[in-house]
Amino acid sequence: MAAxxxxxxxxxxxxxxxxxxxxxxxxxxxxxPNAGKTSLANRICKDFTGEEIxxxxxxxxxxxxxxxxxxxxxxxKGKKMTFKLIDTPGIATKIDxxxxxxxxxxxxxxxxxxxxxxxxxxxxIKWLDDMDLVVIVLDAAENPYNQVNITIVGNLAARKIPVLxxxxxxxxxxxxxxxxxxxxPEYEVVGISARYGxxxxxxxxxxxxxxxxx
Amino acid sequence: xxxxxxxxxxxxxxxxxxTLQFLxxxxxxxLDSNNRIRRILEIIRExxxxxxxxxxxxxxxxxxxxxxxxxxxxxxxxxxxxxxxVSNYSDRSLIDKIKRxxxxxxxxxxxxxITIIGPATIVKEIKKNPKKIELFLKK
Lengths: 214, 139
Hints:
The complex is a heterodimer. Chain A is α/β, with parallel strands linked by helices. Helix content of chain A is 42%, strand content 19%.
């Protein structure tokens, strides 16, 4: 009888592990507006599915709803992992519709965009609880000591969600990865250019390494 | 507080009137997170830059952002907040950190830091780096 129980346990554990390994990892892209979250998510999606996840724009708050791409199988150095990519709206502490007027937008459209952007921020924060792994995308040319960045990192740390920090836009002259590394010494920082596909190998290497913690 | 440069100063545009208020941690210590955030936002909405002794917990910070977004949706004149937390933790040794944690535990909050929160209609930007903090006002 005991032998049958051990046998049953062994098989149930084995099937559980097979199922667990095939599970999609929910990978969130978080960060302030215009840091390049959608550009990076698009780059990954395009490379592995041939499709994009969302539109990008120079106007802040282009992504105002949470966007998904399921069953994205990423291959790197012979290894494969399946992710559900979750591209979130940029998190901000202020949204002023007048800022959108600079982009030749009508007052009505600017107000509508601001309203949708506020909802987007709320949605992004709500989704924090559902992530298995988060890539925080920061603009390497901007000051990283921004309270929004610190709040996102703090919330993920409190939830014990593994974090990879991406310093995007390293193609820009003002880009300074060392400043981002100094601001977040406890995290791995990978410098990339999502727009030009620069240094993505290192990004995938870090992503796979961090996925083991999930 | 810092103004951008001399030419801007000569531009004669005036900053909006505002109040600077210090809020000791003792005043919000016994409030739950919802009431703590409500109290802070009530102060901010009266054109006040708040200097809070201590800091909010990470989940309170995200709640502050969520509630701020709801206020922007509800009131057209409210455009959000600018905030920064100022501390000097990086200069400390492990023993100092342990001492600080014990003190924080006794007081029920981190009193060795200050949080600056201001309405976005008054505070244009709070620039922070490890050594200094600069507050730029809107004109």
